[in-house]
Specification:
Length: 307
C-alpha cells in the first residue's frame, strides 16, 4: 500500500464505474467470509431478541432489535463490496453509516438497563439516605446519554463521509478526520461518565449484601439484580472497547495500522458488538428483575418501573 495513493488490490482491477473511487477506501479488500458471518450473526440475534420482546414483553430490547437491523444492512453492504466491487463508494458509505450508528441503539439498551436497576433499587432505605444515586432519574439517564450519542455519531458519520470523498480524490482528509476524531472523543468521554455511574451502582450492591429494598424482596431478587448488573457492565465495557478502537483507528489516519487490517475490525468492532448484543438479548431486565415485583403482607404493590 502506498501512503499517497491509497490501497489498490492488484488481484481485483478497478472497474472504474461512475460510482467507483480510484482506491479501495477500506484500506483492504473486505472479506466475503466476515461479511457472511456478520449477516448470519445479526439475523439470528434479531430473531432471538424479537422473540424475547414478545415472550417477556421486554420492550427495553427494542433498541437492540433496531441495532441488529442496522448491523445487518451494514454487513450486506460489506458483502456487496467483497462480492461485487470493493471500489464502490456507496457500498463503503452504506456499511460505515449503518455499522457506526448501530452501537448507539445497543448503548440505549444498556442505558435503559441502568435506569431500570436504579428504579428497582429506589425503594431501598440505603438508596434513600441522600446518596447521589438516589437523585438520579431513569429517564434522565436514558435521554442524556442517548442525546450525547446521537450528536457524537452525527459528527462521526459527517467526518467519515468527507474523509472517504477526499481520500478517493487524493485530497488532504486531515480536517475531516479531525471532525471524526472529535465525535469519537466526545463519545468516549460521555460513555466514561456512564460507566462511572454504573460503577457506583455496582459498588452499592457489592457493599450492601443485604440491601433493604421493598418488603418481600428476597436474596434471590438481589442475586438476580446483581446478575443483571454484571450483564450491563460487561456489555457496557465491550461497547466502550469498540469506541476506543474507533477513536485510535481514526487518530492513526486513513492509512494507519488499524484501518488497513481487517482483523482489527473483526475482533474489536464486530465481535464486541455481537457479544454485547448476545448478553443483552439472553439476559434482559424483564427476565432477571421481574422477581423483584412483590406484593407484601399489607397488599401494597412494589413494581419495577422505568420512569
Amino acid at each position: 500500500m502506498n501512503n499517497t495513493v491509497g490501497y489498490i488490490d492488484r488481484d481485483w482491477p478497478n472497474p472504474h464505474g461512475p460510482g467507483d473511487a480510484s482506491i479501495i477506501i477500506y484500506g483492504y479488500t473486505p472479506s466475503l467470509a466476515l461479511a457472511i458471518i456478520g449477516i448470519a450473526s445479526f439475523v439470528l440475534l434479531f430473531i432471538a431478541i424479537l422473540a424475547q420482546v414478545f415472550r417477556l414483553r421486554a420492550f427495553s430490547l427494542i433498541p437492540a432489535c433496531i441495532a441488529c437491523v442496522c448491523e445487518l444492512i451494514g454487513y450486506v453492504f460489506r458483502f456487496l463490496s467483497a462480492h461485487q466491487d470493493p471500489y464502490r463508494i456507496s457500498f463503503f458509505v452504506g456499511q460505515y453509516f449503518c455499522i457506526t450508528v448501530a452501537p448507539v441503539f445497543i448503548s440505549a439498551s444498556i442505558y435503559v438497563g441502568l435506569g431500570q436497576l436504579v428504579a428497582w433499587a429506589s425503594t431501598s432505605t440505603t438508596l434513600k439516605t441522600g446518596s447521589f444515586l438516589s437523585r438520579l432519574r431513569p429517564k434522565a439517564i436514558l435521554w442524556t446519554f442517548i442525546s450525547a450519542d446521537i450528536l457524537c455519531t452525527a459528527l462521526q458519520v459527517a467526518g467519515a463521509a468527507v474523509v472517504g470523498e477526499r481520500t478517493s480524490n487524493h485530497e488532504d482528509p486531515t480536517q475531516a478526520n479531525d471532525i471524526l476524531i472529535a465525535g469519537l472523543a466526545a463519545q468516549v468521554a460521555s460513555f466514561c461518565l456512564f460507566l462511572v455511574l454504573l460503577a457506583m451502582f455496582v459498588w452499592l450492591l457489592a457493599t450492601n449484601p443485604s440491601l433493604d429494598c421493598a418488603p418481600g424482596t428476597t436474596d434471590r431478587h438481589l442475586h438476580r439484580a446483581r446478575m443483571y448488573t454484571c450483564v450491563v457492565s460487561v456489555a457496557g465495557i465491550l461497547i466502550f472497547v469498540r469506541t476506543i478502537f474507533r477513536l485510535v483507528e481514526s487518530a492513526q489516519g486513513v492509512f494507519g495500522e488499524l484501518s488497513s487490517h481487517e482483523v482489527y475490525f473483526g475482533t474489536l468492532e464486530m465481535a464486541t458488538v455481537v457479544i454485547a448484543t448476545v448478553l443483552l438479548g439472553i439476559w434482559p431486565p424483564k427476565a432477571l428483575l421481574n422477581a423483584a415485583r412483590k406484593i407484601d403482607a399489607e397488599g401494597e404493590a412494589f413494581l419495577l418501573r422505568s420512569n
